[in-house]
């Protein structure tokens, strides 16, 4: 008997998304507090975020990263060991950084967890001993990266794309880190760990009326201070497509990145079309770049594309690590696929699958308290409409193939692309020169240099 084909299942109805809205209040010092009651599980999550603008650290780059490592080592009231022992006893999790703090615990310990989080964040105990220990770890990490081709490539990509004077273009080196002192850590904390741009989100099995007075008591004494305001020149794309090459003689592969600067806000009408276009280009296994460079040619383990979004300038980057012998050919294929998404409409099937993936991931995440907290924060910090996430599925489904192509033309600026390649010059440069794309040479720190001697 011949088996009968089963009919394809019909897609179900679009799920209705109901995201709980936070109850909010603002402390006198400017800290904005958002509380979401969710009594499904006896847990609570507290998330303190300082939504500060990026700032340059210049010849002491590394101060902020080192500050993140030092905040949370106990407090001025509780020793590091006693602090950690109590967390273990409560079965809680607390972490700190220079941009805020995070805590998670059973809801019956919510008051104590908030107290510990506030104490660690607002009364950090910066000691010379911990400073020396963490600084030594960071220096060891930097030394380990000296010959790492991906680390070199990433550093040079940002330095050239944004400029070394820009917060997104500077990088931590042994030289800049050695300049950092404990006094710099304390000054960085005083200047930037302030409630001016702070958001405290509490979500879980708590009652607003009970939590509000606790927050007022714990965070109300946080002194109001203004953050130093610095305006940086907007980075610009190159005026014509060019290769920026970094010679790494020990490289066995070439790290290739095609980069443009962009300023894409989540509130922009192009946000979803641009995100979907990027996903189609290099977002998953079936993307244009991966199917070409990996599946068709076998040159790489994977190729991808990412696009940044938010209030500040960021970048669009397509990248891959390929065999040295095919570096020039890979550049040709990168350009081909970017031109393809700019000129051809994506097929209905590909667009449908990508949309379904976005919606599926969103539906799964929206059940998680961490995601709800992040959505509430995004609405506040990114200036999004209140119903942004309720309309998320509808907005995704409304994106057309023409929208994708339009966004690709707006953000994938192939005629103004910086192609950054870190690889073994003696193996790679002769092939690149045949492409007739102008080549400029840089050292491992992103400084202009001469063409390496090829033997």
Automatic annotation (TrEMBL):
Pfam families: Peptidase_M16 (PF00675), Peptidase_M16_C (PF05193). InterPro entries: Metalloenz_LuxS/M16, MPP/UQCRC_Complex, Pept_M16_N, Peptidase_M16_C. Gene3D superfamilies: Metalloenzyme, LuxS/M16 peptidase-like. Residues 179-357 form the Peptidase M16 C-terminal domain. Residues 55-165 form the Peptidase M16 N-terminal domain. It comes from the Bacteria. Transmembrane segments: none annotated. GO terms for molecular function: metal ion binding. This is Insulinase family protein.
